[in-house]
Design brief:
Number of strands: 5
Order of helices and strands: HHHHHHEEHEHHEHHEHHHH
Distance between the termini: 51 Å
Helix content: 40-55%
Strand content: 5-15%
Shape: globular
Strand order of the largest sheet: 1-2-3-4-5
Largest sheet: 5 strands, mixed
Length: 288
C-alpha cells in the first residue's frame, strides 16, 4: 500500500510502558490465527495500548475488532466514492482536534452541520466518524486517552426517529465521553441506547445541557472558534478533514481488505447473531 502507518519506533519511544517483547508475543500469536488478516506492527501496538498493555485482552480486542468490521460492512467499510464522502461531510462533522489536553488526551468532536432531518443518514454518519478516527490513529502518536464529544445541537425528535438502532447497537459494541447541548428528549435517546451500552462505559458519560459546564471539563483553548475557542473554525477543520480523507483512499482500501475468513477460524465460525445475540430488526420507533 502507498499509505504508511506511523513508525512503530516513534510509538515505543513515546510510551515507556510499551514493550517490544509483548508486541512480539502478539506477532507470534497472530501467525497461529489463520482466520485473521496480517497486521502491521503499529496495529498490534494500538491494540496493546488500548487494552492497558494486557496481552490476552489485546488478543480478544484484535479478534473482536476485525470480526465486527467484517460482519458489519455497511458500517465499517469506508466510503470509497468522493461524491458520497462529500455528501456525508455536508451534514456531519467529525474531527480529532489538533490540540491535546495537558493529560495528553485527544479531543474527538462530532456534531451535525445540516440540521435537516431529510438529509440525515445514520449509517453514513457512522462511516465518517469511523473513517476520521481510525485514520488519525494510524497517522499520529497515540494519545493517553480520548475525550469523545458529541454536540447534539440541532439534533431533533425527527433525527431520533431516523436512528438505525441495529447500527447503533453494533457501533456501541465497537467503541471519557461528553454529550454537549443535550436536548430535552435526551432521556428518550438514552432509553433507546442504554441496553446496548456496557455499564462501565455508561458511567463515563457526562451530559452538558449548556456549554458553560462543558468548559469546566474542556477549556476553550482546546476548542474551535465556534465554541469561542482558539482553534480554527469547524468549517476550516472540516475542509482539512475532507482533504485528508481524499488523500488517503489507499489507506481505506487497505483497511477494507483486512477481513476475517471464518472458514479458517478454529472452532465455531462467528456471524452477526453470535456476536450481538439475536439479530433483531427495528422496523419502527415509537416516541411517547
Amino acid at each position: 500500500m502507498v499509505f504508511k502507518c506511523i513508525d512503530a519506533e516513534k510509538l515505543y519511544a513515546k510510551d515507556p510502558k510499551l514493550k517490544k517483547e509483548d508486541v512480539q508475543i502478539l506477532q507470534e500469536w497472530l501467525k497461529k490465527q489463520p482466520h485473521l488478516p496480517q497486521l502491521e506492527e503499529t496495529q498490534l501496538i494500538l491494540a496493546l495500548h488500548s487494552c492497558y498493555y494486557r496481552i490476552e485482552s489485546a488478543k480478544t480486542a484484535i479478534d473482536n475488532y476485525f470480526t465486527v468490521r467484517t460482519h458489519c460492512p455497511d458500517l465499517f467499510e469506508s466510503l470509497n466514492e468522493e461524491n458520497t464522502l462529500r455528501t456525508a461531510l455536508s451534514f456531519g462533522f467529525a474531527k480529532v482536534l489538533p490540540k491535546r489536553t495537558p493529560e495528553d488526551y485527544s479531543i474527538f468532536l462530532v456534531k451535525l452541520i445540516d440540521f435537516k432531518t431529510e438529509n440525515f443518514n445514520t449509517v453514513h454518519f457512522i462511516n465518517i466518524v469511523d473513517m476520521v478516527y481510525i485514520l488519525n490513529l494510524h497517522q499520529t502518536i497515540m494519545a493517553s486517552g480520548v475525550i469523545l464529544v458529541y454536540d447534539l445541537r440541532g439534533f431533533s425528535l425527527g433525527h431520533l426517529t431516523k436512528l438505525n438502532l441495529t447500527a447503533m447497537r453494533q457501533v456501541l459494541f465497537h467503541i471519557q465521553i461528553h454529550i454537549l447541548n443535550a436536548p430535552l428528549f435526551t432521556d428518550k435517546l438514552m432509553a433507546m441506547l442504554t441496553p446496548f451500552i456496557k455499564n462501565e462505559f455508561y458511567k463515563m458519560l457526562q451530559f452538558h445541557p449548556a456549554v458553560e459546564t462543558f468548559y469546566e471539563q474542556v477549556p476553550k483553548y482546546y476548542l474551535p472558534k465556534d465554541y469561542d475557542g482558539e482553534l480554527p473554525s469547524c468549517e476550516e477543520l472540516q475542509a482539512d478533514t475532507l482533504k485528508d480523507l481524499l488523500e488517503n483512499f489507499d489507506f481505506f482500501k487497505w483497511q477494507n481488505s483486512q477481513k476475517v475468513d471464518e472458514s479458517k477460524r478454529f472452532g465455531r465460525p462467528k456471524n452477526v447473531s453470535t456476536i450481538f445475540g439475536v439479530d433483531g430488526t427495528f422496523k419502527k420507533l415509537e416516541i411517547d
